[in-house]
Design brief:
Layout: E1 14-18, E2 27-29, E3 33-47, E4 57-72, H1 78-85, E5 95-101, E6 107-120, E7 130-136, E8 142-144
Antiparallel strand pairs: 1-2, 1-5, 3-4, 4-7, 5-6, 6-7, 6-8
């Protein structure tokens, strides 16, 4: 993907998952992803010392990221099959390296991210089967700025 500047459509964000859990050489695109949202959970400690005359001081002391993805279940696609298979896993077996590439070329690698599959095929009879999951950071991600 080429580096983008200015405004861009959201589909230029790209996601990959390590389907082997052994190396980034096994990063596979997840077919048929439709939408995503991102939430940052920031831990902020607050205190009000005497010398601030009642004004609160703050320090961000913790962070986590959750990427929520909606997709269609695409049987036979390596990335899609891998994510769907995690629905039946627990503990460390529900972890995988996950890469998010931004349109400007910035890459965020979530090592050992917890993949929380929330829907694998359940919908109305006339719908295309969904695949819905959350990628939850598990420690500090590695951010490689576009270069």
């Amino acid at each position: 993907m080429s580096v983008t500047s200015g405004v861009y459509p959201c589909y230029e964000n790209q996601f990959k998952v390590d389907t082997s859990n052994t190396s980034t050489a096994s990063l596979k695109t997840i077919a048929d992803c439709e939408s995503f949202s991102v939430s940052f959970d920031n831990g902020v400690e607050e205190w009000t010392p005497f010398d601030t005359e009642g004004w609160t001081r703050r320090l961000m002391t913790a962070k986590s990221v959750t990427v929520s993805v909606t997709a269609k279940r695409n049987v036979g696609d390596d990335g899609n099959d891998f994510i769907a298979g995690l629905a039946w896993k627990n503990g460390r077996n529900a972890e995988a390296d996950f890469q998010w590439t931004f349109p400007d070329g910035t890459v965020v690698m979530f090592a050992d991210a917890v993949i929380n599959v929330t829907n694998v095929g359940a919908a109305d009879s006339t719908n295309v089967a969904p695949l819905e999951f959350e990628v939850m950071s598990n420690g500090k991600p590695t951010v490689t700025p576009a270069g």
